[in-house]
Amino acid sequence: MKDVAELAGVDKGTVSRVIKGDPRISDLTAQRVWEAVHKLGYRPDRLASGLAAGRWDLCGLVIQDQFGWWVGPFLDGFARGLSAKGNSVLVLGGGWGRGPCDELVGRKVDGVLWMGDVPSSSVGLSDLPFPVLRWGDVEGDCGASIGFHQDLLVEALHEAVGPFRYVGGRWSPFSFLEGRQDPDGRALVWDGTVRWDPVPPGVSVVLGPFPGMPCPRVWTVPLNPREVGLVCGRALGRLIKAPRARMSIRLEVRPSAPEPLG
């Protein structure tokens, strides 16, 4: 950085601000700095920068099940939402031997999105020294919450098909429906982790992409996991900047009418 500053005719602080995208730097100065950066082949040392600033630009994602149909697109959106702030993602699952909380503290992450009922091991969520964005209902004082507003989705399902039974293959964003179903309901609600061939008889609702042709007795709940992940990434970035803020984001999801064949 010292060599870049000398070649560009500025001080090291200006070089640092240019690389971080500080809008207060003039275009002419920024151009001189970037020309010096490219000429010298300079690459910032993120570890050294983290030691100096006390921040590592690393966020955690703790997710109960990493094999659902929605995880890949969600992770892509989540990473994009964080990358706008210069953050990268550390993904941990339920099978992490050391315990997710211990690993997150050891890696000195700036914040975490916690999805599902992953054991927090010896360190509780309320004890973590960084903001926690919890998917679903908040259990204790652990930061903020984000997720599907249960009452809105349950109400929409009842309006569409009446009492229902929920079937989920693995943990998913809709797993909370297990506690909101009617065991005597005739309508079947199932998420994208379940594959039916043929489609079950009667009326049903597919949560996520429908694995097959449109069917006149099958409703769908549209969900774009990439966009949801993008919202989560941006929300966590904001929470890191204002760790004492309380935040609750409601994602209103409603079933769409069946599409007739032909």
Question: How does this structure look, described?
Answer:
With 262 residues, the chain is of the alpha/beta class. The protein is built from 8 helices and 10 strands. The protein has helices at 2-8, 12-19, 27-40, 46-53, 71-83, 100-107, 150-161, 225-241; strands spanning 58-63, 88-93, 111-115, 132-135, 144-148, 164-167, 187-191, 204-207, 218-221, 248-251. A 6-stranded parallel sheet has the order 2-1-3-4-5-10, sandwiched between helices. A 4-stranded parallel sheet has the order 6-7-8-9. The chain is elongated and about 75 Å long. The chain starts with a helix and ends in an 11-residue tail after the last strand. The mean pLDDT is 80.
Distance between the termini: 65 Å
Low-pLDDT stretches are: none
**SS-based class:** alpha/beta
Q: How many DSSP H or I helices?
A: 8
Major β-sheet, in short? 6 strands, parallel
Molecular shape = elongated
Mean model confidence by pLDDT:
80
- Based on CA atoms alone, the radius of gyration comes out at 23 Å
Count of beta strands: 10
Helix content: 25-40%
Q: Going across the major beta sheet, what is the strand order?
A: 2-1-3-4-5-10
H/E element sequence: HHHHEHEHEEEHEEEEHE
Q: How much strand?
A: 15-25%
